[in-house]
């Protein structure tokens, strides 16, 4: 018996526009219930929707990034069903002319390679409100969320297993954050997943397909992975018990996810499926996208994170760990990309990003770009370390000051006395002092014991650094110590 | 008359005459102090159909569903009227959610025709048309989806305009069929129509379907020469079912235009026979969706003791909607259902395109089209109540214009032997209101039918 899972994903992404999809209400999470509403998003009689152009542009950007075809002409449709969190009892959505279709999105594989997942479509729609019933004997409706722009992305059933679905979701989150079109915050429900799962079972040369399960409303990467794995296992077991447990006989079913039990729960079968009675919304005009808009949005999308990652690895010799830091967000990666053109030493700049800048950003709960240190200062700091003006360890102090006050890296280093001393006579004095104060080390350096003679110069260099309060150029110090030992030997 | 006097006079007249006519659902008694100013409608008392939202008082749409509904905002047209100095003195009766042709489908009471209280005033803007006919107010607003301004204007002997779709913002008009609805003015003469249109026309960013077309000076245009008019007469509008008295009156109007120097040309609108079917599929489909929001959850009628949330919907709607509204919701739901969409809704959209093409073709041969507004004069209250199809045929000459989105006006062109008004319908191309009003004004400059007043005015 052979088992091949067939997995597709439907993902809802809330777009981070300032206002709602069809009215001017602000988007705000966790505001006083029903305080972010107006007659339009409450569906009051006589009100009319007006499209939010920014939401449209965000969805076009997503479409471009997903490698899809952008519809030059699309329209709005009404999807009818009754639910208390839906004020008009229809949702404005896109039915047969989605803004994006036929795309392909690369996701990373554990071995460092990538794999494309087909995108059937991505369309724009409005979110519903929220029904609240916990701890109540009745239902309360909060319509603050009603009318939030929502991008629904539907993949082809190309995904091979739960882990791959997981990395798709992670990579998609990175993409929409990268594009600046969504916060994609899971806790705030800004990204929700609905996997469609079934299994092709080959047994005795015959292929059986289990019924497709649509698992509704998952709101974490973890639950996506668990629910898919659970469904694959459940469906195979169900088929083993009853070979009529097939798509042809049972159709498609909806399941919920119980996070506490880590199990899916049956909701409804195909008999109970809705007739949404889609038809074009006569309150809205069709949407057209011209060449200039498409070109402008394409330029704004630019290089995608995974492609940039590949370029950074190939060109700058970054490790996966370096990429995690430097490609964590678009602005940081762009800061790096712009700085590298002026810093010859990629290794050094990478090291400063991963070490110094990342450290400062984490301490401030910011991104590296979010520290607000201008590119010119980032470049300057790398340069004065590269040319030995300051030591690598002094760079942290300078960076800290740059974060706090800004200014010139060199001036900060000067006023903090961090400029490395390279004047030989000044250095000779420190070296002489170190030799005088550490006769044992000098004796070791001159001894025939290879272990001791090898360790001693390093120790002496450390002493010089100490005496000079870190100002001595370490490289030059080493050279001068070697020279002095040699002269003592003769 | 001063502004205060005009408003007082209107309210007095309503008090005196409306108990027998029942045009008015509510007067705005405690109206705000009347401001002075130089608006185009300064101090003019105006009645508004009760499916147009006003922030003060109640907006019922003629339905039990919204019997106590207070809109939180003014419709765009109401804002415009108030800004022009108009005083909204009353909300008028109408068929429930603007569905009907007689104002008998109001959940509250039927309105009576001022020319004969046993007859209907037409509908659905029957209250507005009757109020203007009885001179309760000089002007009123109605809404026209398939003839709801023009047909009652015809039946009550007043002027009623359905502007081009998109000419007037629909924001605040409770939707019946969104692709057809248009607010239109009712007045005793074309000058009044022009004055009202001047105030309410123009783009509104809150209505995506409202046009960016500039608003010409309609009032000034009335006094300009129309040039030589070419009037097309669609032969399909003079077929079976047209009352002979109406035919004669409309033919007489054609003669009047000839005498005024117009060229008359017979034209054809070959897809006219599909109009009613097409209209009732599109309008009911849209209505079934537009009326979904009336569910008892947020506003409007809610059933007393629901078993569960589904029952909140089903019982609230069963109790709140009248039979004609339910009939149309069912028709529209059916037309949009999976498996029927292509056969009905999708096909109706194609027919609509053919109907539009008919008009484009006709207007390539003439400036204005002329027809009767209604196939019959006002019928008796109750006469068509049990026959929805007969009622639907009352719109046979008006619905195609709505499907095409072009402007049309109904103006009085005579009385029947039993002294019931007859309406003449003139149509123009998209945004051709200037030409349309000029042509109608030319007729009224040469005739006096619009000055006739119903017997109730003598009381």
Textual characterization of the structure:
By secondary structure, chain A is of the alpha+beta class. Chain A has helices at residues 53-65, 162-179, 221-241, 247-250, 291-301, 305-316, 320-326, 330-340, 346-363, 375-386, 392-404, 409-415, 424-437, 439-446, 450-467, 474-489, and strands spanning 2-14, 69-70, 73-74, 77-80, 90-93, 100-108, 114-126, 130-132, 140-142, 149-155, 191-203, 206-209, 213-215, 253-258, 263-268, 279-280, 287-288. Chain A is built from 16 helices and 17 strands. In chain A, strands 1, 2, 6, 7, 10, 11, 12, 13, 14 and 15 form a ten-stranded mixed sheet that branches. Chain A has a three-stranded antiparallel sheet with strand order 5-4-16, with no helix packed on it. In chain A, strands 3-17 form a two-stranded antiparallel sheet. In chain A, a hairpin with a 4-residue loop joins strand 14 and strand 15. Chain A is elongated and about 100 Å long. The model of chain A has no long low-confidence stretch (mean pLDDT 93). By secondary structure, chain B is an alpha/beta fold. Chain B has a domain at 3-225 and 407-458: Amidase signature (AS) enzymes (Alpha-Beta Complex), CATH 3.90.1300.10. Chain B has 14 helices and eleven strands. Chains A and B meet through loops of A and helix 8 of B.
